[in-house]
Amino acid sequence: MNDALNVFNEPLIVCGTIPMTGVYRDGCCNTGANDRGTHTVCAVVTDAFLQFSKSKGNDLTRDYPPTNFKGLIEGDKWCLCVSRWIEAYQAGVAPPIILKATHIKTLEYISLEELSKFEHIALTSMDWTELNNKLEKTFKFDNYNYVVLFTKQVMQIAIELDHHPEIQVHYNFVKVRITDYEKGAVSEKCHRFIKEVNKIK
Q1: Per-residue pLDDT tens digits for 148-162
Q2: In which domain, by residue range, is 29 found?
Q3: Based on the domain organization, do 113 and 133 belong to the same domain?
């Protein structure tokens, strides 16, 4: 496993450590003889995919204390079974993929050309992503007090910049989406907004 390669025939990079992913819980989409599901696709999960997976009998949003698994939320990086990713692809709800963290064995099931259409591209080092003409990011917190404080700061930025996001508030995370409704797409105003949000401590 230490010599694992990605779909570019290069050393496999880490997929995700918060939460810790991988069938061997090493943060990488490694695989081996005892990996019955072939967990080789490093995906950035979306709400649409999580609901699809739940409909197939695998609810990844639910905590599972016996294995210390905390349910996934949109934006989490997770090593998926290649067969489930392909099912989602065929259903039109495939999540984005981090190709350099996706194991080369995946190419035994689907081509690099098809996978490349779903490459996840982080817009900044702070991991905002662009989906459906909107920039979005999920911010996680240890308690609800931090959720409220962060949300107030985001709203203040929106007032100051006169550029208003969609904000979804939950007990331990906040999802922020922004677009330029006048242009119907992401604009420079959106990038100014996320730059200010990234400064929140």
Answers
A1: 999 999 999 999 999
A2: 1-120
A3: no
**Whole-angstrom distance, CA of residue 19 vs CA of residue 89:** 24
90 and 43 assigned to the same domain: yes
Structure confidence by residue, pLDDT tens digits, 178-196? 999 888 888 888 988 998 9
> Tell me, what's the pLDDT at 1?
47
Q: In what order do the strands lie in the sheet with 129-131?
A: 129-131, 134-140, 173-178, 166-169
Cβ-based neighbour number of residue 170 at 10 Å: 13
Task: Look up residue 188 and give its two tokens.
Answer: 């420079």
- Which residues are within 8 A (CB) of 129 and not within 5 positions of it... i.e. 6 or more apart? 44, 75, 96, 120, 121, 122, 123, 135, 136, 137
Could you tell me if 115 and 133 lie in one domain?
no
Whole-angstrom Cα Rg for the chain = 18
Pair 123, 161: CB distance under 8 Å = no
Dihedrals φ, ψ of 104, to 5°?
Answer: -60, -25
Is there a single domain that holds both residue 102 and residue 154?
no
The overall longest dimension of the chain from CA atoms, in Å, is 56
Out of 78, 102, 120, a domain closes at 120
Q: What angle do CA 174, 75, 23 make, to 5 degrees?
A: 130
Number of domains in the chain: 2
